[in-house]
Write a structure and sequence with these properties.
The protein is an alpha/beta fold and about 350 residues long. The chain is built from twelve helices and nine strands. The protein has a five-stranded mixed sheet, with helices on both faces.
Length: about 350
Amino acid sequence: MRPYLQSHFEIAHRRDITDYEGHFTVQKRGTKTEEEAFGEDFVRAFRGECGISPIRLAEVATVLAEDAFERKTNVVVRTRESLRELLLSEGLSENEFESLMQHFVLPSRPDWTKVALPFRSKDWWPWRYRRHLSLMARPLVALNETEIAYAPGFCEDSFRHVVMEAHSGAFDTEYFTSRVMKEYIGAANGRRGLDFNKAVAETFTKSGWRVWVEVQMTQLRCPGREGSGDIDVIAAKDGIIYLCECKDLSFARTITEVVEQLGRFRGRHGDALWKHMRRVEWVRRNASELGRILGQEPVEIRSLLVTSKIVPMQFAHEFPVQVVPIDSLEAYLGSNHDEEAVEI
């Protein structure tokens, strides 16, 4: 655990040093509509999930901040009805207010360790991130059935966090309940995955490799019972072939998340690495089919898991596939290409 965290934060620290001057650059304020900023699909999905649009959520944060400024306080306690009157007087609709109460209020409960449906225990476990019952997701705290407490500055941070994490697809689909948002998250993850595949391919290209992106196993004449799906990136140079599985993964921040990520990538039946290993095994047995696609006979076929960042799998004592973060890929290729190839 310690080497993994140290490596991650060392890279993050170096990146922060490089970007330090950017913190003193005045950002230009735009005049885009929310559809122009986020895309119509996301705005529709967010409204379908939360009953309020991103721009309206930002307006709520502004109203709460201005009200707190007038009160000369950082933390406000209001009755639900007075909060309703305040927001409706500033243009929020009744439906938007009710949606705000439903999705952004942390409800009071007699026993902190017990939750009612649709929530589950993991929605409050303090050692988990991206949980439903957290201040980061629900910054308006119900003290009882009638009073709500909040810090307007934190509300702004929370609203921005929820919007941006949803927009980028960082939340799992199970975090949401509406079909439209689940579909958006699935599409966003698909786009991000394809973009990452292309970034990996570009890194190989810069290092002088020929690349193919998302090669279907059917193109290699592989029977479906022996291997399905596609190989994210194939790279070839001097007879050495890399078959790459590319994963844009979230940072595993806790021991629980580290264990979960390691569990997903063991190379065992049905997990996130198993299909890649099956594909590699079949290609090694049928190298001529790969040669037909690439236009050259492979001398050595190598399996590679390329990740978007440092991951726990790099530090596992035994792991079935070589793991390389994309930031280290160019250096890895330079140090490993000249090794003596083993004929297949």
